[in-house]
Amino acid sequence: MNVITNNNVKCTIALAVLQNVEDPEIGLNVVDLGLIYQVDFDEEQAKIFCTMTLTTQFCPMAAALSEAVKRALQKTFTDMDVHLEVTFNPPWSHERISADGQLFLNQ
């Protein structure tokens, strides 16, 4: 799980918050699933830019999951505007799942 960021401290906070956002079909959070690709912070413009993916382009929960990620970041960073981009480049793969995520899925 490698998340690109321009602010390690704030990204750590963001990822901790996003661990509470679960994929409802899998039951694993978006961080351990490896769905979060990048979280950047623009202090001057008070914006967060988050890039994430989904396990499939045809995910029936895409809108709900994206909105949950955006809402969680907005709730934590109340003074910043959250911009969320969903991408499939690169496509998600099982290799992005964290060690904790692997343990959860293998129970």
The chain-level structural class is alpha/beta
**Sheet having the most strands:** 4 strands, mixed
Tally of separate helices: 3
Total number of strands: 4
Physical arrangement of strands within the biggest beta sheet = 1-2-3-4
- The average pLDDT value, as a whole number, equals 95
In terms of per-residue confidence, which ranges show pLDDT below 50 for 5 or more consecutive residues? none
- Alpha carbon gap, first and last residue: 20 Å
String of helices and strands: EHEEHEH
Beta-strand share of residues:
15-25%
Helix content: 25-40%
What's the alpha carbon Rg, rounded to whole Å?
13 Å
* Quaternary assembly: single chain
Approximate shape: globular
Walk me through what this model shows.
The protein is α/β, with parallel strands linked by helices and 107 residues long. It has 3 helices and 4 strands, in the order βαββαβα. It has a 4-stranded mixed β-sheet, covered by helices on one side. Strand 1, helix 1 and strand 2 form a beta-alpha-beta unit. The protein is globular and about 45 Å long.
Task: Label this structure with key terms.
single chain, four-stranded mixed beta sheet, alpha/beta, 107 residues, 20% strand
Task: Write the topology of this structure.
Layout: E1 4-5, H1 8-18, E2 36-42, E3 47-52, H2 62-76, E4 81-86, H3 99-105
Parallel strand pairs: 1-2, 3-4
Antiparallel strand pairs: 2-3
In short:
With 107 residues, this protein is of the alpha/beta class. It has 3 helices and 4 strands. Strands 1-2-3-4 form a 4-stranded mixed sheet, covered by helices on one side.
